[in-house]
Amino acid sequence: MEKVRRVERVVALTKLLVDRPHHLFSLGYFSELFGAAKSTISEDILTIKQALQSFGLGTLETVSGAAGGVRYLPQQEAAAINGLLTDLAERLKSADRIIPGGFLYMSDILFDSQLMLQIGEVFMTRFQHLAPDCVMTVETKGIPLAFATARAFHVPLVIVRRGSKVTEGPAVSINYVTGSSRRIQTMSLAKRAVPAGARVLIIDDFMKAGGTARGLVDLAQEVGARVVGVGVLVATAEPQEKLVEDYVALLILHEVDEHTKKTDIRPALV
């Protein structure tokens, strides 16, 4: 094998680590891949870690022991999070986003892949201490956001259906009451989607009274899982009392005035 120059090795190492957040790579894997000693790989990793931290691009975590290695954690600094959320709030204040009924058009935001990857890393930063085994959401608009969060954690994404699908086998279904319209709806989850005892992080795009989030919590508990956190991109300021007690909202929607075309939405700064 042709000798790999250090600059080439560092670039390749960075690419491999950053492309797979939270994935634990052994030093032996990199040593064999690049034909270099583990001590040399360790020096490269230290260089990459210092560079990432200097520019606020995340960090590398070294895990000791026989089954140890190194992994990339896409942690975001408070200043970067606040800047991202402030810019996003300004985008959502645009008058042409107001839809009859006092709603905001958000689909372009939610299906912006690069933006959702950034928001997923924000959720990872906020919930990292909870160490979830999977991320759960309900179809459909919250899927990109939940997928990005699952990628940042390197865990599976579980999608709850608004009705059962024959192709997914036996499922658990529950009826829940939407907090805002007080309508009864049904959601279902394939029995094999979440192992019993799994730590579940719920991620969704919007919360008003919290009825959907409450339904997801109840459904997770019904299959024997444990909900460790709830995160939403946007939550309304009213009602103050939600149907879930503990949740993290990145943006707070205070008011949408259809007559003046003014939207009061603010970032939940950290």
UniProtKB/TrEMBL annotation:
Signal peptide: none
Phosphoribosyltransferase domain mapped to chain residues: 127-248
Start and end residues of each Bacterial purine repressor N-terminal domain: 5-74
Keyword Calcium: no
Top-level lineage group: Bacteria
GO biological process: negative regulation of DNA-templated transcription; negative regulation of purine nucleobase metabolic process
Gene Ontology MF, one: DNA binding
UniProtKB keywords: DNA-binding, Transcription, Transcription regulation
Family: Belongs to the purine/pyrimidine phosphoribosyltransferase family. PurR subfamily.
Assembly and binders: Homodimer.
PANTHER family xrefs: HYPOXANTHINE/GUANINE PHOSPHORIBOSYLTRANSFERASE, PUR OPERON REPRESSOR
Name listed for the protein in its UniProt record: Purine operon repressor, PurR
Species this protein is from: Thermosinus carboxydivorans Nor1
